[in-house]
Amino acid sequence: DIQMTQSPSTLSASVGDRVTITCRASQSISSWLAWYQQKPGKAPKLLIYKASNLESGVPSRFGGSESGTEFTLTISSLQPDDFASYYCQQYHSYPGVFGQGTKLEVK
Amino acid sequence: EVQLVESGGGLVQPGGSLRLSCAASGFTVSSYWMSWVRQAPGKRPEWVANVKQDGSEKYYVDSVKGRFTISRDNAKNSLYLQMNSLRVEDTAMYYCVRGGQGDQLICRIWGQGTLVTVSS
């Protein structure tokens, strides 16, 4: 199975900050990488697909990029609604593994 | 409004069975790959199984092969997961997920989940 290593596991930040979360695949997944946001007690929500494509309705402060097998989720200016957990997922091949997650908390 | 509503979760003893159902509205399931994804408390999501639009292809994570069966009824716009020989480690929130029309594993739309607890 392809392994997805996500970092950091916890990130403390303030409203207005620019934050970056990284996900590294154990082998090539081309651009088949998605990012999800999850709030407590809720289902995950798709933010970005194919590494850098913003899902409809997602604010433009969210962005994704890739460099080889390393993928990055960037929030350009944190808003209060963005404090949540974030997961990457490779959907290149079965079994579609998710990263360990990053909890974005208030500093 | 596009919506997925799961049902059928509950408390079951190890070795027992449960059948999860997912009712879709606001779209036609027959156009999409459909999946079940589970998430144990405090853990990352784990893709469990999916099924192609016409039901001709089904895939499972290794840990549930031979125990779980995914199925769909396009006429009822519904998805199912039959879970047999349940283990304590199957305890999780189970989400019904709409995939893509071509992308088999992406999770575009999620239901609210149904909780499965396996315990004696």
Quick tags:
heterodimer; A: 107 residues; four-stranded antiparallel beta sheet; globular; B: 120 residues; mainly beta; seven-stranded mixed beta sheet; 0% helix
Question: Describe it for me?
Answer:
The complex is a heterodimer of chains A (107) and B (120). Chain A is mostly beta strands and 107 residues long. Chain A contains no helices and 10 strands. Chain A has strands at residues 4-7, 10-13, 19-25, 33-38, 45-49, 53-54, 62-67, 70-75, 85-90, 102-106. In chain A, the strands form 2 sheets. Chain A has a 6-stranded mixed sheet, with no helix packed on it. The model of chain A has no long low-confidence stretch (mean pLDDT 97). The relative contact order of chain B is 0.32. Chain B has strands at residues 3-7, 10-12, 18-25, 34-39, 46-51, 58-60, 68-73, 78-83, 92-98, 109-110, 114-118. Chain B is mostly beta strands and 120 residues long. Chain B is globular. In chain B, strands 2, 4, 5, 6, 9, 10 and 11 form a 7-stranded mixed sheet that branches. The model of chain B has no long low-confidence stretch (mean pLDDT 97). Chain B contains no helices and 11 strands. The A-B interface holds A 32, 34, 36, 42-46, 49, 55, 87, 89, 91, 94-101 and B 44-47, 59, 61-62, 95, 103-113.
